[in-house]
Write a structure and sequence with these properties.
It contains 13 helices and 4 strands. It has 272 residues and is mainly alpha-helical. The strands form 2 sheets. The protein has a two-stranded antiparallel ribbon with strand order 1-2. Strands 3-4 form a two-stranded antiparallel sheet. A hairpin with a 4-residue loop joins β3 and β4 (230-234). The radius of gyration is 24 Å and the shape is elongated. The termini are far apart.
Length: 272
């Protein structure tokens, strides 16, 4: 993270939304790899998305002096400026997590209902949102790391201790105890992995969340068994492998997720 120069800011301000093709975005933010050796070259990107810049009124559609980042500026130019959403969203100046995206889309939906934006503008927003996110994320976002795939040994040890300590409660389907164990193990895992770039995916909530991490690396937890009308506490995780006694619970979870969607889809198509 660094403050960009005035010359760099002038260059960014000179770009139009149509200038921001995928190749230009890769040039701005992508570090290349030698395809023959797969060894990373020296950084070739002009910027990091987290590089800082200052926008002043009159330079861009900000109402006051605004400390921002290059990544946020490009988002505003690529989407907000292009589609003409300045009066609805203003300058979007926060990390673009899933939650931030949902907040912005709630504002757009309200504006659409109130005829402050057109349906075509909303279509354009969805198209350019997906175009930017789905193309650019492999350029700027780290993937899972070995540390985030492999559960820390200290967490595995603590999990075994807690499962042994609360064996009766877990066998009785005590969801309060299960949740308490989940929170303790999750906090421990976050502390162990602090600073690991593989957590970016979970922190963003864009292509993952900590519920996914729990299921993958800790344990699935409470699952309703509709045959008995009781909760079962599934102690398996995907990375450890599913225990024989938990197979039916994983199967029930799949059905519980798919059945309502399938039935709703059938109703919508007037099949049933």
């Amino acid at each position: 993270m660094a403050m960009i120069t005035e010359a760099q800011k002038k260059y960014l301000l000179s770009l139009t939304p149509d200038d921001l093709t995928f190749s230009t975005l890769v040039d701005l933010f992508g570090d290349t790899v030698d395809p023959k050796t797969a060894i990373k070259n020296k950084p070739t990107s002009k910027f990091n998305t987290t590089d800082e810049m200052v926008l002043n009124p009159g330079e861009y559609f900000v109402k006051e002096k605004t400390n921002t980042t290059v990544g946020r500026f490009i988002y505003n130019k690529y989407i907000v400026e292009r589609i003409g959403l300045q009066d609805i969203l203003g300058y979007v100046n926060e990390p673009l997590t899933k939650g931030a995206g949902q907040k912005n889309e709630a504002l757009l939906a309200k504006a659409l209902v109130e005829d402050r934006m057109t349906v075509d503008q909303f279509y354009d927003y969805v198209d350019y949102r997906d175009n930017l996110g789905m193309q650019l994320h492999p350029v700027i976002c780290a993937s899972f790391t070995m540390n985030t795939i492999k559960t820390p040994a200290s967490v595995q040890k603590k999990k075994a201790e807690l499962f042994k300590k609360y064996d009766k409660e877990l066998k009785d389907g005590d969801i309060v105890t299960s949740e308490r164990i989940e929170k303790e193990l999750m906090k421990m895992a976050k502390d162990e992995l602090k600073g690991d770039p593989g957590l970016d995916l979970y922190d963003s909530e864009a292509r993952g969340n900590y519920g996914n991490y729990k299921n993958m690396n800790l344990f699935k937890g409470a699952t309703m068994n509709n045959s008995t009308g009781k909760f079962e506490i599934v102690q398996s995780s995907f990375m450890d492998g599913i225990r024989k006694e938990d197979i039916h619970s994983f199967g029930n979870a799949v059905i519980a997720g798919d059945y309502p969607k399938s039935k709703l889809g059938a109703y919508n198509r007037n099949i049933i």
